[in-house]
Amino acid sequence: MRQGDPPPVVCFGEMLLRLSPMPGIPLTRAAALDLAVGGAEANVAIALAGLGQAASMLTVLPHNALGRRALAALREAGVATEHVTHAAGRLGTYYFEPPSGPVGGCVTYDRVGSTFARAKAGDVGFVAALDGAALLHLSGIIPALGPDSAQLASAAIEAARNAGLPICFDGNYRANLWNAWNSDPRAILTELVASATILIGNHRDISLLLGKTFSGDGPDRRREAAEAAFDAFPDLQVIASTARHIESATVHRLAGRVDLRESHWQTEEVRIAPVVDRIGTGDAYAAGVIYRWLHDGSAQDMAKSGLALAAMKHGVIGDSICIGHAELEAFDLGGADVSR
Question: Which keywords belong to this entry (predicted)?
Fold first, then answer.
C-alpha cells in the first residue's frame, strides 16, 4: 500500500469462473453458456469497492486468459490487485443452472486441483498484503477445499493476528466440498473462528462449531446461539446473519440480523420477487455489514445496509453487485419504483 492511501479491506479466497445456461435449459441440454467471474471473497471486495471502501484482493490465479479475465473483473470494479499472485494451473469453475418456475437452481463444482487449491502458504504474500490494512475478510470455503487450503486459511488468520488486524470470517459451509476429503470441519472452523472479530453465520453455523443445538424459536433461538458463541469466542464482537424463507424458486422473503454482545437488531422481512439471481446475496450482505462496521455503525445500521445490498443483489445477474454509496442510501426496501 502506498503512503497516504486509505487502509483497504483485504479479501482472501479463490476466484471462480461461473458458466450458466439460460433459465429453463438444463445443463444436460445446453448449447451455450454465459460466463461470469465470482468467488465469495471477491464478491465482497467488489461490493465494498463500489461503496467507496478501499478493497484489495489476495488470491492466486492461473497464468492464462481466464486468470486475466478474473483480474479484469476486479480492476473494473476498482479492487486493488497488486497482491494477486500467479501460478501454473487452471481457474476453479462451477456451473450454475438458474431457477426456473418451480425448479430451484443447481450448482455443479469443477474446482478440484485448481491453481488456488494447490497453493501453499509460501505462495501468498500475506505479510505485505496485510500491512496497513483495515480488516481481513475470508470464509469457510477456503479450508473446505482440502488440507492445503485449510493451512492457507490458518496462515492468513495468523498473519492478520500478527498485524493486529480485525478479522471477518464468513462460515459459508459447503458440505459437498468438506465431504470430498477426510475432513474435520468442526475442529478446523472452530480454530479459525476463534480469531474472528466478525462472524457471518447463523444458529446452524454456531451449532456446528459448538456441537450443540438451540431450542428457541426464531429470534430467540438466534439470540441463544449468539450468546453461546460470544461465550465460546472472546474475540468476537459481531455476529451477522440472514433469515430466508422461500415461497418458490423465484419468490423469497429475507430479513437481516446483527447480534452484539449487549444488544441485537433484526429487520422486518422484505419480499423479493422475482429472484433473478440468488448467488452472491450472502456476500452482498456481508459487505454491507463490514462497510457499516468500519464506519462505526450500530447493529441496526449494519443489519439494514446488509439487507439492502443483499436484496438488490437478487436482481443482478452474476456473482457480485457493484453499486455506489448513494444508490445504497437511496434504495427503498419497501418498493421498486422508477427513479426519474
Answer: Kinase, Transferase
Quote the cell numbers at residue 317.
Answer: 445477474
Task: Give bridge partners of residue 253 from the DSSP assignment.
Answer: 245, 271
- Whether 240 has a pLDDT exceeding 70, the answer reads yes
The x, y and z cell numbers of residue 12, run together, are 482472501
Per-residue DSSP letters for 252-307?
EEEEEEEEESS-EEEPPPEEE-S-S--TTHHHHHHHHHHHHHHTT--HHHHHHHHH
- Does the residue 81 lie in any domain? yes
List b or e across 299-318, with b for residues whose CB sees 16 or more CB atoms inside 10 angstroms.
bbbbbbbbbbbbbbbbebeb
pTM above 0.85, yes or no: yes
Residue with cell 469497492: 49
Q: In what order do the strands lie in the sheet with 106-110?
A: 34-38, 16-20, 92-97, 106-110
Q: Report the pLDDT averaged over residues 64-77.
A: 98
Tell me whether residue 85 is in a domain: yes
CATH assignment of the domain containing 31:
3.40.1190.20
| Domain encompassing residue 178 | 9-327
pLDDT of residue 32: 97
Q: What one-character DSSP code corresponds to residue 80?
A: B
Number of structural domains (the chain) is 1
pLDDT tens-place string over residues 157-207: 999 999 999 999 999 999 989 999 999 999 999 999 999 999 999 999 999
